[in-house]
């Protein structure tokens, strides 16, 4: 049996080239898939971070609004209590003065004339 060494060498060389091309294509595909997966993971992480930041900002704003409302309610209650106390004190003073004046008038009127 006769073997042509040149043809055999060409086929072996061609086979090696095909194997190298296949390996290069597989490596490129694997690298592309890894890059795509990394990009998708980074985008998902960024979206999660943005959602968490938005939720935190909303919670902070709600807490600030609640604090402002509580402060306003406390201030209104304090003002109302102060006004009520002032009104009661003034009423007591006026009533006491009126009763005292009436007593003085009654005392003067019932005094005997000399």
Automatic annotation (TrEMBL):
<keyword id="KW-0472">Membrane</keyword>
<feature type="transmembrane region" description="Helical">
    <location>
        <begin position="47"/>
        <end position="71"/>
    </location>
</feature>
<keyword id="KW-1133">Transmembrane helix</keyword>
<keyword id="KW-0812">Transmembrane</keyword>
<feature type="transmembrane region" description="Helical">
    <location>
        <begin position="17"/>
        <end position="40"/>
    </location>
</feature>
<protein>
    <submittedName>
        <fullName>Uncharacterized protein</fullName>
    </submittedName>
</protein>
<feature type="transmembrane region" description="Helical">
    <location>
        <begin position="77"/>
        <end position="100"/>
    </location>
</feature>
């Amino acid at each position: 049996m006769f073997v042509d060494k040149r043809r055999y060498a060409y086929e072996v060389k061609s086979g090696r080239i095909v194997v190298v091309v296949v390996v290069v294509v597989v490596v490129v595909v694997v690298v592309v898939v890894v890059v795509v997966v990394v990009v998708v993971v980074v985008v998902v992480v960024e979206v999660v971070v943005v959602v968490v930041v938005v939720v935190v900002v909303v919670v902070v704003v709600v807490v600030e609004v609640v604090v402002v409302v509580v402060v306003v309610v406390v201030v209104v209650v304090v003002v109302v209590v102060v006004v009520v106390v002032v009104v009661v004190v003034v009423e007591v003073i006026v009533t006491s003065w009126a009763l005292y004046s009436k007593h003085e008038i009654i005392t003067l009127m019932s005094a005997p004339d000399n």
